Amino acid sequence: MKAGQIVERHQIEIVSVPDLGIADQPSGTLLVKPYRGAICGSDIPYFTLQHPSYPLPLGQSLHECIGFVVDSKSSKFKEGDEVLSVPIGQTGLAEYFISNDQLTVHLSPSDRPSEMLMSQPLGTVVWACRKLGNLIHQNVVILGQGPMGQMFTRFVSNLGAKTIIATDLLPYRLEVSKQMHATHTIDVSKGNLVEKVREITKGQMADLVIEAVGHQTHTINTCIDLVRRNGTILAFGVPDESVYENFRYGDLFRQNIRLISSVIPDAQTDYPLAMDMIAQNRIDVSPILTHHLSFDEAQYGFELFTFRQEEAIKVILDFEA
Fold first, then answer.
1. Confidence of residue 321 (pLDDT cuts 50, 70, 90)
2. Pairing status of strand 227-235 against strand 258-261
3. Are the CB atoms for 223 and 252 separated by under 8 Å?
4. Which of 23, 173, 296, 312 is the most buried (most CB within 10 A)?
């Protein structure tokens, strides 16, 4: 089989390796042949950070995948089942990967496979929003309008937020944010973000601020500046650092701000709901699907996504192209 492998920082090679098997794997294991995958921000550290040794494990890193079960040690799935499945170890950048029945759900029938693939990231948004309670009439700010920020923008609109302020450094992303139902957009490279939010909210500031940037340490403090007293910050962006040395915990504490973190959804509950919402056209994810490439173009795809080239938002890899 063919698999992608990061052999140096910023360098992916497509290599030929022996086929995978699951004979020696525990009960519940699945072997999946993906036909579509998508690059996510949490895949990027494997590509961009300097690691102690190379090459990295085969198939790292891709985890948003749909495909067919080709071998099963689970009573829940049989050979030929079409599934959304999360590869163990984020090793989905390959013609076959190993998963299990806890990380896999049956895929709803659809003639829009790339949109249904978005059930995986949308499921993480569902999981996060389950923690937030009622959003009706609330002022919401979303920091970052990459794929996840865009999905939060659309989702909080569905949940009844009154004001949805999308912020980013890239104007092309903010144009898409309008299609995802942002009521206001702010280019954070221009002017004072805090004052602009104050003006939009008529001095109330945000009831909820969603941090959807990650991979740096300063935006969590920006969230503290934007949220009202007794408001909520949802920390969703993936951290690269275990310790945030400059985190203004004292300000968070004294303003009675709630800080909620969110990662790894309940696959068996959240992915199916996300699928239903996409299949039933309750959420249109098509505006963020900007690039479709073949699996062999993985290097190009990661460059597009990582370095924000060609106005890329979501990059899809087609294993059958």
1. confident
2. parallel
3. no
4. 173
Asked if the model's pLDDT at residue 13 lies above 90, the reply is yes
Token pair for 58: 């085969």
Q: What is the DSSP letter of 109?
A: P
> Which is nearest to 66 in space by CA: 84, 45, 41?
84
Tell whether pTM > 0.90.
yes
Burial of 204 from C-beta contacts in 10 A (0-12 / 13-18 / 19+)? middle
Dist. CA 231–CA 247, nearest whole Å = 17
- Of the candidates 11, 305, 3, 283, the one whose C-alpha atom is nearest the C-alpha of residue 151 is 283
Q: What's the sign of the alpha-carbon dihedral 172, 173, 176, 178?
A: negative
Domains of the chain (ranges, CATH numbers): 2-120+267-318 (3.90.180.10), 132-261 (3.40.50.720)
